[in-house]
């Protein structure tokens, strides 16, 4: 048994903190008490007035491949208090996968998920989860079934509608994932091939997941001009499917949409909630996002490419068309070049050595340095690196980020990418302590109790993790001990690879992470 004395208990529910003691045996909490527990036959830890709270749950982390293949996995996560990380988000995952599409899918995923060994192959989500269960990890892992991967495996990357056979195959993939223990489904409506799917396609797959108690979390179709309509689409998917839905990394992008554009989307969410629909959202505490370079290619260019986007953009005709089309406003697609400009789009990761000096520069800066136009540089990067180029989009207003993160139904995520490169988004290293530092200590927008709830009980409830996210008898002993005045992030956009600092102790399932006590979690 472990007996923690003299701590300020923030139990994750949002209730006022209190001075007290914790006691656990094995992986389960036995006592969470405001009264002294007395002398016990247990290992005793004096918290010296520090905060004790549940371990943080990152419901949106693209660590699918890192968990399996990175020997240092867990280091950056545990330094910021993450004791449970959930993968398979945005419809992007290495499973299910067909042998014919393995190389194409993994190249597409690389900027988000990083590299995998050449022999890495998971025909079904259950195969992927079985590989996880054979591993030993310092933190808990959860899996979402990714409908983008399911759609690709069922009918390919192209603009091909579901037919009876491909829909039956996609349903089988969903059932396999849910029966293997997936927490729910994720989709990436803005990404190929899901951008071609219909509302009813998503509702059908979500309905199947709902039979197992799952929910749907969505990277929506558009986060700029079409934000409110895109949120309404997900709300309608949930209504038709009869399942809970979550809007992933809820934000508004594009200078012209700041403020009012966000409020219109909030109104959609709150109307649905007022009508009794199970609708939530999550967000990360940064005014910039991160994605793959191909997400910047306009739909008109994709259409002209005829299925060979990379090949087309390495031609003179393709480059000139890109240069022309990125200067246009599209009513139903977020043209980030048009809405925020090349000077607010940074190159974050490449694989070719000659392009590495460009990491951290905006496209405008890098183009001037290379003596090219931004579109010419864009096409050269594709020619050099294929699709494996990551970008950071300085696309948000900090005031809008504050507004979202203080909504009572919004939980905190990192949306961390593991695609490598010299200049990753700092959210990989610091999201959770940054949220505490900024929103509690510096801005005073939330109490410590409210902030902790957004990183513990709220995501646990959304994910169906009934045994985590709260310090209470019978719950799993995922516990953090820290001084809130010194627990902080250190990663910045200019120096992103900086571990968070100040977390005194962390326990995962009642044990120290060095003992590799992590579990593959499922709904409870």
Automatic annotation (TrEMBL):
Residue span, Amidohydrolase domain: 43-95, 423-511
GO molecular function annotations of the record: hydrolase activity, acting on carbon-nitrogen (but not peptide) bonds, in linear amides
A Pfam family recorded for this sequence: Amidohydro_3
Family annotation (SUPFAM superfamilies): Composite domain of metallo-dependent hydrolases (SSF51338), Metallo-dependent hydrolases (SSF51556)
Protein name: Amidohydrolase family protein
Organism: Candidatus Acutalibacter pullicola
């Amino acid at each position: 048994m472990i007996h923690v004395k003299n701590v300020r208990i923030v139990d994750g529910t949002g209730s006022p903190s209190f001075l007290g003691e914790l006691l656990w045996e094995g992986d389960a909490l036995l006592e969470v008490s405001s009264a002294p527990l007395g002398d016990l036959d247990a290992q005793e830890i004096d918290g010296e007035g520090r905060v004790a709270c549940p371990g943080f749950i990152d419901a949106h982390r693209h660590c699918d491949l890192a968990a399996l293949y990175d020997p240092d996995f867990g280091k950056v996560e545990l330094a910021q208090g993450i004791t449970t990380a959930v993968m398979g988000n945005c419809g992007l995952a290495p499973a299910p996968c067909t042998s014919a599409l393995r190389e194409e899918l993994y190249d597409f995923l690389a900027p988000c998920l990083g590299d995998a060994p050449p022999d890495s192959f998971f025909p079904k989500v259950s195969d992927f989860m079985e590989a996880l269960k054979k591993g030993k990890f310092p933190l808990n892992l959860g899996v979402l079934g990714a409908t983008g991967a399911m759609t690709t495996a069922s009918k390919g990357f192209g603009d091909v509608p579901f037919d009876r056979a491909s829909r039956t195959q996609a349903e089988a993939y969903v059932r396999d994932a849910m029966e293997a223990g997936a927490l729910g489904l994720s989709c990436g409506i803005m990404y190929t091939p899901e951008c071609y799917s219909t509302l009813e396609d998503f509702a059908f797959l979500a309905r199947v997941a709902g039979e197992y108690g799952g929910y749907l979390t969505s990277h929506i179709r558009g986060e700029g001009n079409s934000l409110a309509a895109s949120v309404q689409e997900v709300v309608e998917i949930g209504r038709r499917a009869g399942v809970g839905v979550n809007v992933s990394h809820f934000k508004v992008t594009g200078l012209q949409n700041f403020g009012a554009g966000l409020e219109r989307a909030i109104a959609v969410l709150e109307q649905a909630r007022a009508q009794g629909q199970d609708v939530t959202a999550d967000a990360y505490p940064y005014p910039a996002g991160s994605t793959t370079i191909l997400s910047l290619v306009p739909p008109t260019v994709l259409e002209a490419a005829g299925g060979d986007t990379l090949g087309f953009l390495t031609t003179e005709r393709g480059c000139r068309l890109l240069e022309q089309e990125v200067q246009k406003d599209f009513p139903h697609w977020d043209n980030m070049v048009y809405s925020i400009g090349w000077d607010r789009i940074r190159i974050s990761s490449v694989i070719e050595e000659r392009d590495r000096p460009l990491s951290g520069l905006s496209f405008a800066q890098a183009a001037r340095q290379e003596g090219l136009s931004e579109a010419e540089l864009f096409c050269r990067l594709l020619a050099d690196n294929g699709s494996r180029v990551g970008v950071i989009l300085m696309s948000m207003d900090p005031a809008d980020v504050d507004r979202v993160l203080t909504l009572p139904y919004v939980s905190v995520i990192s949306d961390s990418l593991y695609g490598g490169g010299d200049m990753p988004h700092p959210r990989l290293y610091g999201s959770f302590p940054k949220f505490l530092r900024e929103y509690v200590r510096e801005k005073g927008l939330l109490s410590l109790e409210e902030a902790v709830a957004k990183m513990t009980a709220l995501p646990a409830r959304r994910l169906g993790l009934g045994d985590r996210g709260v310090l209470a008898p019978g719950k799993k002993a995922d516990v953090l001990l820290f001084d809130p005045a010194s627990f902080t992030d250190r990663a910045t956009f200019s120096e992103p690879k900086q571990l968070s600092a100040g977390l005194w102790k962390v326990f995962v399932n009642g044990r120290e992470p060095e003992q590799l006590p992590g579990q593959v979690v499922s709904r409870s």
